[in-house]
Amino acid sequence: MQGLAEQQRDFALALLDAARATPQGLVGPDGLPSPRRFAVYRNNVVAGLIETLKDNYPAVRRIVGDEFFRAMTGQFATAHPPQRPVMLDYGAGLPEFIAGFEPAATLPYLADVARIERAWIEAYHAADAEPLSANDLLAVDQGRLGEIRLALHPSLRVTQSQFPALTIWRMNIAGGEPAAVDLQAGGEDALIIRPGAEVVVRQLPVGAAALIRTLGAGKPMVAATIAVLEATQHFDLRTILAGLIEAGAFIGWSLEPDTGDEPS
Asked: CA–CA separation, 58 vs 52, rounded Å?
């Protein structure tokens, strides 16, 4: 006779695999095995996961249409069941799944659109924090600005695409109007952040994404700037920093402990 843990494992596996038989010991009101009842329950579970993904990835659904979306996310749901009881977080792996989903290969930008949508969800549910203002930086010794380390806002996310994925995403969210897009027009980097009550999405200038990543790794300003300049020819540090501060990208600053300066 199966133990409880083994019964639960078989039940969970059968829920997401139609090829598996009805779990042993599972019976209907008449006390007899009921594969038909279990099949209905299984379909409802998968349908519920697909509905969650529809809510979390509205632009992707609009781009591919309901039928394609159901088929694609149905395969994702059976291969990647929820790992946590909180469904708000479900679907984090869908962008990577789309990137390897052969029927979506004709839409090479689709995975990047999904990454923007995932970043939006993460930003929306991230912790609150008060953004740093330009005036806050006046407390820093101006001769040591190059040594400053900037702490990123907890909601800040960055996506990068070799396609105009941000433009395509904007066309396919509520209020957007789909139109022809030149996929050869160049890539777009996006900043997704919630400095206040609302998530804000904006396009990043060249080099900004690399700067954010480097600052996020704890590099001081000079080292971060040098790293970006080595990889990017066109890089306007002053304009990028001003834009990031205005967007609420930073929540504090610090210098080396032995300087005597305190974090803001």
From this structure: 10
